[in-house]
Automatic annotation (TrEMBL):
Protein's recorded name: FGD2 protein
Domain PH: 222-304
Gene: Fgd2_0
Organism of provenance: Crotophaga sulcirostris (Groove-billed ani)
Organism ancestry: Eukaryota, Metazoa, Chordata, Craniata, Vertebrata
Residue ranges annotated for the DH domain, each copy included: 5-193
Protein origin, superkingdom: Eukaryota
């Protein structure tokens, strides 16, 4: 008799979980532990750096090795009398939120790894030494570190497949669908963590271009659009090059700096978005012009 499709997928989940736990073991118990030991002896890099590279990998490893994998194994052994995994995944899914931290830290971790490998030869040599071991399967530390980032999307795919293959009357249907929904939320959660990190990095880059004027640096700001614009001077009937940054709460009217040392722009004016009006002008001499009027003042600008 052929194995039911859903059992094949459940087995695949178990097999990939076993492989994944050995990969986590390598990251936490081998790389992290040995690099930490050398850091403590003061031979390679500061301990703080090692901690930052590996983020919360120890918690992730403990969770999978002590809870998730054993629960799955038990289920697959009892499949003949309890053919279900939905309830187990549901019970454990909330813990997967701790991946948010790891995922958010990932780019920073890889960057630290690169920087310190260049700075510290003993650090670089120790990593190379571990990478030569059979357990590493000719793959780099960076490659192994990527595994946790890819694990939750993998659960999502397997579980989707599992739900699709379940017979309509399966006792696991309700639980499996709920579990899938939970995994989906966790995946979204870690994607949001990445999106939030990217938003903050972009925001910080913009602040640096503006010379980090204290009163505009606010992590909750959102950059909506930026670009060059011409300022029209009605007195001299001429235009001059300016630059706008539009945030969710303010419009920054800037002048490009001629000598680019440090900041790229100087903020000349900020207009609060609250109460700001934009009006198109039909100026024959200057096409594409518009008026921006706010509490602070009114500007006549020309777009490209």
């Amino acid at each position: 008799m052929q194995e039911p499709e859903e059992k094949k997928i459940a087995l695949e989940l178990l097999e990939t979980e076993q492989a994944y736990v050995s990969r986590l073991h390598l990251l936490d118990q081998v790389f992290y532990t040995e690099l930490m030991k050398e850091a403590k002896n003061g031979k390679t890099v500061p301990e703080e750096v090692v901690k930052m590279i590996f983020s919360n990998i120890s918690s992730i490893y403990q969770f999978h090795a002590k809870f998730f994998l054993p629960e799955l194994q038990k289920r697959m052994e009892d499949w003949s009398c309890t053919p279900r995994i939905g309830d187990v995944i549901q019970k454990l899914a909330p813990f997967l939120k701790m991946y948010g931290e790891y995922v958010k830290n990932f780019d920073k971790a890889v960057e630290l790894l690169t920087v310190w490998s260049e700075k510290s030869l003993p650090f670089q040599e120790l990593i190379a030494d571990i990478q030569k071991r059979k357990v590493c399967a000719n793959l780099t530390l960076q490659h192994h570190m990527l595994e946790p980032v890819q694990r939750i999307p993998r659960y999502e795919l397997l579980l989707k497949d599992y739900v699709r293959k379940l017979p309509p009357e399966s006792p696991d249907r309700d639980d499996a669908e709920k579990a899938l929904e939970m995994i989906f939320m966790v995946a979204k959660h870690s994607n949001e963590a990445i999106a939030e990190m990217e938003r903050l990095q972009n925001l910080w880059a913009v602040y640096q271009r503006l010379g980090l004027e204290d009163d505009i640096v606010d992590p909750s700001n959102e950059l909506i659009k930026e670009g060059p614009v011409q300022k029209i001077s009605t007195r001299s009937n001429s235009t001059s090059e300016k630059y706008l940054f539009l945030f969710n709460n303010m419009l920054l009217y800037c002048v490009p700096k001629v000598i680019q040392v440090g900041a790229e722009f100087q903020v000349h004016l900020r207009i609060d978005v609250d109460g700001m009006k934009v009006q198109e002008l039909n100026d024959v001499q200057f096409p594409h012009t518009f008026l921006v009027s706010g509490k602070q003042r009114t500007l006549e600008l020309q777009a490209r």
